[in-house]
Design goal:
It is a single chain. This protein has 247 residues and is mostly loops. It has one domain (23-214): Leucine-rich repeat, LRR (right-handed beta-alpha superhelix). The protein has helices at residues 2-10, 18-25, 36-44, 77-80, 155-158, and strands spanning 30-33, 61-64, 86-88, 110-112, 140-142, 164-166, 190-192, 212-214, 226-227. It has a nine-stranded mixed beta sheet. The radius of gyration is 20 Å and the shape is globular. 38% of the residues are buried. It comes from Lynx pardinus. One of its GO terms (cellular component) is cytoplasm. Keywords: Leucine-rich repeat, Repeat.
Length: 247
C-alpha cells in the first residue's frame, strides 16, 4: 500500500488547460492558444496538442502559434474537429512531416502551416488522403517559411478547390507534374513562390489564364511576378519587397 501511494505521489500531474475548459463550457467556435505558458504545457504533452482539444467538435477556428515545443498536432484532430473551417498552426516546430496526416477535414477552407520545419509531406504524413479528397473545400494553403524540397504529388487531388497557394521561402526546385495539368486546380488564382530554387514553370500553367504569380525576378533562384505565366520559363515582373501574405 505504501509503495502504491508513493508511486501515485511521484506520478506527473497533468497540465491544466483552462482555455479548453472555458471553450467547452461556453460552446465556443473559435479558440486561440498562444503565449509563453503554452511551451511548457505542450512539452509536457510530448510535443503534441492535448487530446482534450479534440473533444471540442463545435470549433470552426483553431489557432496554435509561436510554440517551439509543438512538433506534431497529435492523433485525433481529424476525427474530433470535423467542423473546422480554419486551422492556423504557424511559427511552431512542426516537422519534418506531419504524423499522423491532418485530414480528412471536410469543412476546412483555410490552412496555415507557415514558419515551421516541414521538409516533406508524403502520404500518411501530409495534408490528407487524395481519394476521396482529404481537404475537399480547402481554398487557401500557406506553407511559406518551411524547408520543403518537394510538394505532395497528389496535392491537386487532395485539395481540388484550392485558390491561393503560398510556398515562399522553401527549398523547392520544381512542382509536381500533375499540379498544373488542365482540370487539376481549376480555381487556382494566386501562387506565391519566391525564395525557392525554381527556375522554370511547367508548360501546363498556360491554361490558367487568371493565375497571378507573385514575387520578383532576380538572377539565380527563381522568383517571378506577374499574370498570365508564359509556359516553360519564369515571368519577369516589377520587384517587390514581399509577396502578398495569405490568411
Amino acid at each position: 500500500m505504501a509503495g502504491a501511494a508513493e508511486a501515485a505521489a511521484a506520478a506527473p500531474v497533468p497540465e491544466a488547460w483552462p482555455e479548453l475548459e472555458l471553450a467547452e463550457r461556453e460552446r465556443r467556435r473559435e479558440l486561440l492558444l498562444t503565449g509563453p505558458g503554452l511551451e511548457q504545457r505542450v512539452r509536457a504533452a510530448g510535443g503534441r496538442l492535448p487530446p482534450r482539444l479534440f473533444t471540442l467538435p463545435l470549433l470552426h477556428y483553431l489557432e496554435v502559434s509561436g510554440c517551439g515545443s509543438l512538433r506534431e498536432p497529435g492523433p485525433g484532430l481529424a476525427q474530433g474537429l470535423p467542423q473546422l473551417h480554419s486551422l492556423v498552426l504557424r511559427r511552431n516546430a512542426l516537422g519534418p512531416g506531419l504524423s499522423p496526416e491532418l485530414g480528412p477535414l471536410p469543412a476546412l477552407r483555410v490552412l496555415d502551416l507557415s514558419g515551421n520545419a516541414l521538409e516533406a509531406l508524403p502520404p500518411g504524413q501530409g495534408l490528407g488522403p487524395a481519394e476521396p479528397p482529404g481537404l475537399p473545400q480547402l481554398q487557401s494553403l500557406n506553407l511559406s517559411g518551411n524547408r520543403l524540397r518537394e510538394l505532395p504529388a497528389d496535392l491537386a487531388r487532395c485539395a481540388p478547390r484550392l485558390q491561393t497557394l503560398n510556398l515562399t521561402g522553401n527549398r523547392l526546385d520544381s512542382f509536381p507534374a500533375a499540379l498544373f495539368r488542365p482540370g487539376a486546380l481549376p480555381l487556382l488564382s494566386e501562387l506565391a513562390a519566391a525564395d525557392n530554387c525554381l527556375r522554370e514553370l511547367s508548360p501546363d500553367i498556360a491554361h490558367l489564364a487568371s493565375l497571378k504569380v507573385s514575387g520578383d525576378c532576380e538572377p539565380g533562384p527563381w522568383r517571378s511576378g506577374g499574370e498570365g505565366a508564359a509556359p516553360g520559363r519564369a515571368v519577369p515582373g516589377t520587384p517587390q519587397s514581399q509577396p502578398p501574405s495569405l490568411p
